[in-house]
Amino acid sequence: xxxxxxxxxxxxxxxxxxxxxxxxxxxxxxxxxxxxxxxxxxxxxxxxxxxxxxxxxxxxxxxxxxxxxxxxxxxxxxxxxxxxxxxxxxxxxxxxxxxxxxxxxxxxxxxxxxxxxxxxxxxxxxxxxxxxxxxxxxxxxxxxxxxxxxxxxxxxxxxxxxxxxxxxxxxxxxxxxxxxxxxxxxxxxxxxxxxxxxxxxxxxxxxxxxxxxxxxxxxxxxxxxxxxxxxxxxxxxxxxxxxxxxxxxxxxxxxx
Length: 256
Fold this sequence. Notes:
Layout: H1 4-10, E1 14-16, E2 22-32, E3 38-45, E4 51-56, E5 61-63, E6 66-68, H2 73-77, E7 87-88, H3 90-99, E8 110-112, E9 126-127, E10 133-134, H4 191-194
Parallel strand pairs: 1-6
Antiparallel strand pairs: 1-2, 2-3, 2-8, 3-4, 5-6, 7-8, 9-10
InterPro entries: Bac_photo_RC_H_C (IPR014747), DUF2382 (IPR019060), PRC-brl_dom (IPR027275), PRC_barrel-like_sf (IPR011033), Stress_Response_Assoc (IPR052967)
Protein name: PRC and DUF2382 domain-containing protein
Organism: Conexibacter stalactiti
């Protein structure tokens, strides 16, 4: 078991299990009522330290800036819920010892270092002028700021499809027929054709002229697929809040 001076320094440090996995932050150290030896550590666990569990200090030792306990993280997580108070009852200790598979001795309950237990084994009794009887020390506490995040709706984005009209101009080559008059002299080659009709007569010849015209046809063609998706962008935001801290002063009214 660690020395008391070492255990006092454990408060506020991170507790890791025997495999080096983080368990939580040590809030208080509970000592044996008879010998004053450190016996239990009250550790903040869970998200943002929202839960508290008792962890045995038997076999615990410093590990750099952390404290390594001789238990597993799962054992701490599954530990029975014991309300943290000024002292542990015999029934609470039996429950914890049984959970961690530690032999239990009937030497008495444990008390938190600096807590306000009713009286210790030596019979030392302190008097609290505000009312209740305490031991020979008072506990100084302070608020700690734990900041987390929660997800909430910040707005909505929707896709909307609508139709716009624009003018498109294209140049298309077109062809047309035009009449051309051809004259040829009478020769031996065409003389018979020239005399095949009456000598003097009236006639009309007609030629049909053709031309091309642009034909416009519109077709609907898929161009792309559009969908909405989300991505997470991480920013930093400062959070400020007032916290309260207790301070202890000495008010000396003794005569000099």
